[in-house]
Amino acid sequence: MKKTAVRSFDPDVAKMLAITIVIFVIMVVLNGNFAKSSNLTSMCYQLPELGLYSLAMMMVMLTGGIDLSVVSIGNLSAILAAKIMKYATTNGFSGIKLFCFVILGIIVALCVGCFFGAINGLVVSKIKIVPMLATMATSEIIEGISIILTQGHSVNGAPEQFTRYGATTLAAIPYSMWILILVIMFTAFLLHRTRFGFEAKMVGSNPKASHFTGMNTSQVYTKAYLYSGVVSSICGIMILMRTNAAKADYAVTYVMQAILCAVLGATNPNGGHAKVTCMVLALLSLQFLSSGFNMMHLSSYFKEFTWGLLLIAVLALNFLTDYIRQKKGQHKAVQTTGSAAS
């Protein structure tokens, strides 16, 4: 019984849990105010933004792709929702009329995510353009549309009935955090309890073999990018709800941080492997670092340098780990062959 328990404990989760605890302890030692409830609550307001973009990135990376348009989709979704809601408040709508415009803004924002997510999926799966180039082009197009719509300015004026949910809590937890928790639960269910999750892992591991088994790989890619687009739109809506502002260039650094969070959270950049639990722990680690850096009044340039350095270190560590596992596997195979021959 004890041996089974030890074997069933996931080494990736253990490694990520240890890293998260070490970072938290270091930040507490460096700044005594870090563990105060006010700072933890503040982190709960900030965490969902990176969390949702990281989940979107994780899903496409699971299939062996990447989505550099997540932030652009979120920003355009927020801009269109803000413009619709602003129209309602500017014209003095109230009651049911105002509520309908808020719902309309949310629906339009989600449609933006569906549309561009599907476009990304079709371009990658049907036209066979490299995911990085395809989503980079989509990102530029979406950002261009956002700048045309806003003329480079911020769009605000969403009704108080909508924005108050971005600043209030339910059971001492911000509404935005509840949204993240629900999306995490849905994603875990999608990956581990549905056919799509199984197919996404198979396609990411070996797309050619998946195709020859009769699997509709194009549909799998499209669904993954569609998921990414919708989750990015949800993030845009949530940012608008919290800040009452939408901009074409809001949070552009989240793209790299989302990639870092996914890779740090045991997602294989080549596809076929992802763990929601590890991704959540990686998200907490990055948030602890970001909040700690802010409390130490370190510049944003230092943070970006740290993210880049951490990403390179994680990729190098993953490569080294895979190399060692491969060598051990070859060594065992040689020993087995030798034993069988003798």
Automatic annotation (TrEMBL):
The keyword Cell inner membrane applies. One of its GO terms (cellular component) is plasma membrane. Keywords: Cell inner membrane, Cell membrane, Membrane, Transmembrane, Transmembrane helix, Transport. One of its GO terms (molecular function) is transmembrane transporter activity. The keyword Membrane applies. It is found in: Cell membrane. PANTHER family: ABC TRANSPORTER PERMEASE PROTEIN YPHD-RELATED (PTHR32196:SF21), ABC TRANSPORTER PERMEASE PROTEIN YPHD-RELATED-RELATED (PTHR32196). This is ABC transporter permease.
